[in-house]
Write a structure and sequence with these properties.
Isopropylmalate Dehydrogenase; alpha/beta; elongated
Length: 331
């Protein structure tokens, strides 16, 4: 058992489906044969979640990973929260829940930076609840960057052999388009190449998605491809990076999934999100790279409409843990 990777699993927003999907993942015997799972979550919430999913296991609250025994009938958790779970309103964004989610993430980062856990897998959080709690970060990526002192972590989506990186993330579309510059594209291509090599892909083949319909059709539908993307691709080639593009966005993700490329650089948030989630919403996993450790996450929200009803699927939570184990082999 000790040779298995130790994954810190955060409960997410306790008013949402996070505790339930963490509890369901923890009861997956096949998953527990691949990794040791340590929950960072409110003890009251996790006990209630185990009961909700009918788990035949108890919750044991511990204070450090060294205390964990990882017995099959027991889920161990560290509770860094100040939450009184009985007062929480299920399915509602509230500051108490946002603060609890943040405290769990902060503790998971601390443990992983200290080498006490090997990677982090996160359940969903709610931006409105974080804001209500006065948390100074808008999302997981911002937290990870701020709490680790990392500059501009990268997001990679994984769905089987489809890998998608993002040039921009949470920006208005008009601002994302402004950030499609030759220098930024070139910088990201170098980073994508480096991250893929660190993940065990010896000779990465990268494609850049086009911004405009048909990649601009030679300037008829926009000039960003000619003025910004093509020069970046040419310079990347001169630096030894195997990259093609711009490839029209309506085909590049399909071609990557078919094996023509190892990864696609998506130019804005929805471009890559729609491609992956349309193929398989539940099994798409978000991976944060550019840190000193690996972090994976479900790629769905808190689903307040399903919260604490015993109806939430844990497929994405389970897949995020599997992806963490898969890429830890190369970390």
């Amino acid at each position: 058992m000790q040779h298995l990777p130790l994954i810190a699993v955060t409960m997410g927003d306790p008013a949402g489906i996070g505790p339930e999907i963490v509890a369901r993942a923890a009861t997956n015997a096949a998953l527990r044969r691949k990794a040791r799972l340590l929950v960072l979550g409110n003890a009251q919430a996790m006990r209630q979640a185990l009961s909700l999913v009918g788990a035949q296991m108890s919750l044991r609250e511990i204070h450090s990973p060294a205390e964990a025994g990882f017995q099959p009938d027991c889920l161990e958790a560290i509770d860094p929260t100040r939450l009184e779970f009985a007062t929480l309103k299920p399915g509602v964004a509230q500051g108490e829940a946002g603060l609890a989610a943040y405290d769990c993430i902060r503790k998971a980062i601390e443990l992983t930076l200290n080498g006490e856990t090997d990677a982090i897998a996160t359940a969903p959080i709610n931006k409105e609840a974080l804001h209500a709690a006065g948390v100074p970060y808008i999302d997981h990526t911002a937290m990870l960057a701020g709490l680790t002192g990392s500059h501009d972590p990268m997001t990679m989506f994984v769905l089987d052999n489809l890998r998608i990186f993002f040039l921009t993330r949470h920006l208005p579309l008009i601002e994302a388009c402004r950030q499609v510059t030759s220098q930024r594209v070139l910088t990201y291509l170098a980073r994508v190449d480096g991250e893929l090599r660190r993940l065990g892909i010896a000779s990465p083949r990268i494609a850049v998605a086009g911004l405009n319909p048909h990649s601009g059709e030679g300037g008829l539908f926009g000039t960003e491809e000619i003025q910004e993307i093509l020069p970046a691709v040419a310079e990347a080639h001169s630096q030894g990076i195997d990259v093609q593009g711009p490839v029209p966005a309506d085909s590049v993700f399909f071609l990557c999934r078919q094996g023509k490329y190892d990864a696609v650089l998506s130019l804005y948030h929805d471009q890559g999100h729609i491609a992956a989630k349309t193929v398989d919403f539940e099994r798409t996993v978000s991976v944060t790279l550019g840190l000193s450790f690996l972090r994976t996450s479900v790629d769905h929200g808190t689903a307040f409409d399903l919260a604490w009803k015993g109806m939430a699927s844990a497929t994405s939570m389970e897949e995020s843990i599997r992806v963490a184990v898969r890429y830890l082999r190369h970390a």
